[in-house]
Fold this protein.
Amino acid sequence: MGIEIQHQINNENDTSVVAAAAAPVILGLQPSALVDHVARVDRSLLSRIPGEPGGSFPVAPEELKFILSEVNSHINAYPESTSPLKTIAGGSVANTIRGLAAGFGISCGIIGACGDDEEGNLFVDNMSSYKVDLSRLRRKKGPTAQCVCLVDDMGNRTMRPCLSNAVKIQAEDLTAADLKGSKWLVMRYSIFNIDVIQAAVKIAKQEGVSVSLDLASFEMVRKFRLPLLELLESRSIDLCFANEDEAAELLRDEDKADPESALDFLSKYCQWAVVTLGAKGCIAKHRKEVVQVPAIGEAKAVDATGAGDLFASGFLYGLVKGLSLEECCKIGSCSGGSVIRSLGGEVTPENWQWMYKQMYTKGLPIDNFGVASSGTGFC
């Protein structure tokens, strides 16, 4: 890791934390930096691992080791790479922040911790290559979190993160300096980080920072629904993203658990509520305004990993730029559509160009990042 990158990261015992540089517009709270191991596999493997297919739920270190050992014998060949595994910096929040920085040119930073290991170096190198501010990322002794992302032949992904022995930022590590001057804080719901989430929300409200929350997975909502409801009912979440499965779990005890009902429920507590519907697009509500926007791009995904995360990138970009609710949804659909065209939660340069073309074709505003970097003559 280079000297310049090293100086961006706070050591475990450094309490000064943040330099006096201009605060990023959007910050992501990811208590544990994460490295994704993405592989396209046959479905038989999914029956051999803990948890339900399609969700995301933590596994123990020995379970992670078992899954990784089984991957090679269940690999399905795919055209994007000759390697059976694609290893990249990951995590829902990191995907969203990287997308905002790489695809939309928004200044972004990460709050969290990474280990002093090879995976920690990989996370740092990847995120810094997109000019993500790492001054709020603490370097701690210990392993960096890892996640296996298994993609079936329909493009559906099953995620199994291993967080139990990984370094993470603690609630008491957070300070007002982490958030001061920023506009948005992006978070992902997790019962295992609930104390950090609550501490971050408290500071964000004190600093006038708006808070975005992703509901993470239907498994997380199902197993830990009550703390989530308490968080929402605190009215401290300004923007909430849920997919169709998460929305159903959120309202499982209600007479109606359809996406529209979930949207109405979320909008009681959040200024902006969004329910993504996969190939059917999304529905969103801001105060009394409700919009429905179709999906953009191919119906069949190569890999759905990061689709919701990149949708959030586009939607947040629209909010930062003061665009309408419908425009925010359309840009979210464009960016979500860009990441499903290849394996993993990192958008390739050619797929960013695809997104810019979609935005231009649909009359959506694009800044110079889209025009200047395209070289395609579509503008």
User: Anything to note?
Assistant: The radius of gyration is 19 Å. Confidence is low (pLDDT under 50) at residues 1-7, 13-19, 371-379. Residues 37 and 170 are 25 Å apart (CA to CA).
